[in-house]
Backbone:
């Protein structure tokens, strides 16, 4: 992958371009705190009770994994105008667990310049959120509004 400029605009992108984030370490306290506020289910808030659930142990909320992924993307995908979502799909093929170290790998799948708004386009990306073993904890395919370089 060639080095990317500090700020990337629509005309800088090509199908196949990749962005890789730094890492984010997740611990039990973070999982429980997020879940108590936003997804208060026993498999996210109580390690002992979680043993008797589908997850067979404490698991981060998928929304927590998504929020961490967003942070990693903002830090590693320098789109001019910001990361502006326009739709997509989200999958969690395996749970994120306490002690996992997450990283995001984002790849450009498609680029469509807008016909009606020449200052932007829609870029489809696939972002895999991987744990320290390289296992996919989340797959996000999203369409983003990406601005052209200002005149």
Residues:
């Amino acid at each position: 992958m060639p080095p990317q400029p500090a700020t990337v605009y629509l005309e800088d992108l090509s199908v196949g371009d990749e962005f890789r984030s730094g890492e984010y370490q997740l611990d039990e306290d973070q999982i429980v705190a997020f879940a108590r506020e936003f997804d208060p289910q026993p498999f996210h808030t109580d390690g002992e009770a979680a043993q008797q659930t589908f997850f067979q142990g404490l698991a981060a909320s998928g929304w927590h994994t998504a929020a961490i992924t967003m942070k990693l993307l903002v830090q590693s995908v320098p789109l001019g105008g910001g990361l502006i979502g326009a739709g997509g799909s989200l999958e969690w093929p395996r749970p994120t667990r306490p002690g996992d170290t997450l990283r995001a790998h984002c790849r450009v799948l498609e680029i469509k310049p807008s016909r009606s708004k020449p200052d932007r386009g829609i870029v489809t990306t696939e972002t895999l959120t991987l744990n320290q073993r390289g296992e996919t904890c989340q797959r996000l395919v999203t369409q983003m509004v990406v601005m052209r370089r200002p005149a």
